[in-house]
From TrEMBL:
Residues 1-147 form the MGS-like domain. InterPro entries: MGS-like_dom (IPR011607), MGS-like_dom_sf (IPR036914), PurH-like (IPR002695). It comes from the Bacteria. Gene3D superfamilies: Methylglyoxal synthase-like domain. This is Bifunctional purine biosynthesis protein PurH.
Length: 197
């Protein structure tokens, strides 16, 4: 199994993320992050590179576009055993991303609030998060997709005993969880929209 070298961490629910990132950093993992997550990590002494610094593009459209970039998705989706993929990403200065740690905007909590507006609900539909997670889950053979803070300790434990990697079965389980959670998230959005207008 390959060692995890680069991780993207961008979370709405920051439960346990600082300690998790510190442990990853101790294992030599380079961390890329966005906005509020990057600030939380840096404030706690974790060296986190802003995604915008890596891609050369700023976050834009009031934060609607942060991670939707070939330097992110190329690094997630590149098949490590496909020489053509690896040649392409090398030619474009794209690093492989081995771990994607994302949880989603709290859509269901937002729409459950009394008096929430339709516009507030729409702005709490996560786009970049599910996109990164789906990409990582699709390429679980090479990338670990992490959507649940409850998995942080398990990940650190497995990495600690395996030389810094995660087994195929472990990554498969993480991918399955991602697709289950995202399907529920999309269903909640659809159910809201059916009754909102």
């Amino acid at each position: 199994m390959s060692k995890i070298e680069n991780a993207v961490i961008s979370v709405s629910d920051k439960t346990g993320v600082v300690e998790f990132a510190k442990r990853l950093q101790e294992m030599g993992v380079k961390i890329f992050s966005t906005g509020g997550t990057a600030k939380s990590l840096r404030d706690a002494g974790v060296a986190a590179t802003e995604i915008s610094e890596y891609t050369g593009f700023p976050e834009m459209l009031d934060g609607r576009v942060k991670t939707l970039h070939p330097k992110v998705h190329g690094g997630i989706l590149a098949r490590r055993d496909n020489p053509a993929d690896m040649t392409v990403i090398a030619a474009h200065g794209i690093k492989t991303i081995d771990l994607v740690v994302v949880n989603l905007y709290p859509f269901e909590k937002t729409v459950a609030k009394p008096g929430v507006t339709f516009d507030d609900a729409i702005e709490n539909i996560d786009i970049g998060g599910p996109t990164m997670l789906r990409a990582a889950a699709k390429n679980f053979k090479d990338v670990a997709p992490v959507i649940d803070p409850a998995d942080y300790d398990r990940i650190i434990s497995e990495m600690s005993t395996s030389g810094g990697g995660l087994s195929y079965d472990f990554r498969f389980g993480l991918a399955l969880k991602v697709f289950k959670v995202i399907s529920g998230y999309d269903a909640a959005i659809a159910n809201y929209l059916k009754t909102a207008k």
